[in-house]
């Protein structure tokens, strides 16, 4: 039921403080000193000793996988590869004993992801799944896994399933880091605390929706949009662009901000909205110079900034403010204004937000 919301997508965006909490509930132990992933208990020793983790998925789930790659490599120090399931299944990838293959899928029915998983299984890898739909084909195929508890997602554009996936993957990365002795108990508890603070912070962002709507009004007739981010916010840039294109049919591209000078900068003119996703992290100064490059070419900068930011806010044309957080959990916040931005633009363009043309909720054909 949509309740008071005009569309399922909007309802699902607004559910996120709850769905994120539902996803970590029972997995962060009451004393907040430990993460327990029940579905992985039996196989965790194998994962701790893995030589490599390969994560596969499609669309938004692939973006969640990219966040996981950065987290696992930074904190747990296991090499990670992320691949589109549609590529992985048809090329001849090398899968060695000691490799762990993890599939991410909201529906658990995506044909490419399922086929890729079966192939990896046949080659002897330990197969894990992060699915939202309980008892789905992918969930049944895996050796072990963790369910996201986002509830049924009806809007074709994935929103709450993405933040639930990132929540599980973040817990997974922190737990793995701790079990491998790569982080101290003190940092572990600090990171857990950062996760527990996310729902309230998402709520704060949701309350700013009138401002996001105003900005959407300004840019709704643009032909193209560019999304830039670095580090944990690079996948967020990709996800923001995917949301916009799939529901509003505005052409949008997400890029690692450092790649801008290798091509996309040629697109910048006074008609181009450039969404720059930033946080006060180690990339901050680099993002500042990316914005200067865009401004010098008269591009319109819409910046996702943290509340403590006072550099970028003076350079951008428009701002989406998000509460401060640790960089390891920042993607969970930065994506929210971009979901709303895409939503409002699509509504203003008269598009069918919940059922965009040519798309299905789960892609069960190859
Ligand atoms: O159900 P899955 O997570 O396997 O679906 C993967 C993609 O089809 C899905 O994320 C798609 O890209 C969404 N429409 C994105 O909003």
From TrEMBL:
The active site is at 361 (for fru-6p isomerization activity). Its EC number is 2.6.1.16. GO terms for cellular component: cytosol. The chain crosses the membrane at residues 328-347. Keywords: Aminotransferase, Cytoplasm, Glutamine amidotransferase, Membrane, Repeat, Transferase, Transmembrane, Transmembrane helix. It catalyses: D-fructose 6-phosphate + L-glutamine = D-glucosamine 6-phosphate + L-glutamate. It is found in: Cytoplasm. One of its GO terms (biological process) is carbohydrate metabolic process. It comes from the Bacteria. Residues 43-182, 215-356 form the SIS domain. This is Glutamine--fructose-6-phosphate aminotransferase [isomerizing]. It comes from Gaoshiqia sediminis. The chain holds residues 247 to 612 of 612 of the full protein.
